[in-house]
From TrEMBL:
Any one Pfam family match given in the protein's UniProt record, by short name: DUF218
Keywords carried by this UniProt record: Cell inner membrane, Cell membrane, Cell wall biogenesis/degradation, Membrane, Transmembrane, Transmembrane helix
Organism name: Escherichia coli
PANTHER family on file: ENVELOPE BIOGENESIS FACTOR ELYC, INNER MEMBRANE PROTEIN, PROBABLE PERMEASE
Top-level taxonomic group: Bacteria
Residue intervals of the DUF218 domain: 1-91
Descriptive protein name: Envelope biogenesis factor ElyC
Cited function: Plays a critical role in the metabolism of the essential lipid carrier used for cell wall synthesis.
One Gene Ontology biological process: cell wall organization
Membrane association type: Multi-pass membrane protein
Compartment(s): Cell inner membrane
An annotated GO cellular component: plasma membrane
Length: 99
């Protein structure tokens, strides 16, 4: 699971250029762990932030895809807005309806 972090959405940028602060290292570690665990899913969390039109989870998913993770191996949880909500969404996936 990769928790949401800082990003700025610009569809004209390379996917990884949309991530800021500690977001890219989080994503890289998530992909590393996903590769070490065949058959696992990679979960990205986080809602839409500020004036962005794409959620944190979706930005992470798109970056992961650009780095070779198949979309069918990715789960996005677009509703959580903070760490507490992200943990609850993963603990009780039926509450989000996302997976």
């Amino acid at each position: 699971m990769v928790l949401g972090g800082g990003y700025t959405w610009n569809p004209q940028w390379a996917p990884s250029s949309n991530l800021i602060n500690n977001s890219l290292p989080r994503l890289n570690e998530g992909i590393r762990l996903w590769r070490e665990n065949p058959g696992s899913k990679l979960i990205f969390t986080g809602g839409v932030a500020k004036t962005n039109t794409v959620s944190t989870a979706e930005v992470g998913a798109r970056v992961a895809q650009s780095l070779g993770v198949p979309r069918e191996q990715i789960i996005t949880l677009d509703l959580p807005k903070d760490t507490e909500e992200e943990a609850a969404a993963v603990k009780h996936p039926e509450s989000t309806g996302d997976w």
